[in-house]
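I'd like us to work through together how a protein chain folds, taking it slowly. To get us started, please write out a protein record for me. Label the sequence line and the structure token line clearly, so we can match residues to local backbone shapes. Once you have written the record down, we can walk along the chain together.
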Amino acid sequence: MPFFENRYQDENGHTYARTVKKDEDPDFRYASQEEALTQETLPETATPVVTSTQQKETQPPKLLDLASLSAILAKEGFQAKEVASTYQKLYEAKIVSYPRTEDKTITPEQYEDLRPLVEGIAKVVGVDVNLLTVREPRKTHVQEKGAHGANRPGSVAPSSLEALMA
């Protein structure tokens, strides 16, 4: 049976909702949205309480091949031909790696070539370099196999995003 209930969302985007035990009949669920909106369900001073904290880590996704990149950009309205053409131009300017590869890893040599470019690329895309804490090769991304290596930055880091438009 569909229902409506009031929830609270703080300035950080965290949503707070009540939980219901299996055999409990909740009195905070309503048959219509209008009924839910008329009910006062939060106290005047609703202050969240931190009950626990936990350090979590998320592994980065696999490196992309051109087909995967094109599929992601297709959802944003870009045609595959346009993506390939743009990538080719960026390759010719040495901003990205060889475009026609199905590799999903890079070699240790390619990783070492990228090391000096990391901070410059981070600045171009607006990432705080202090957030780049893992500086050692990941076994999942850096391996001895592969022909050209996965799509990655080339040997030239642009000075800004605007420089890419020129």
About this structure: Helices lie at 33-38, 66-74, 80-92, 108-114, 118-124, 161-165.
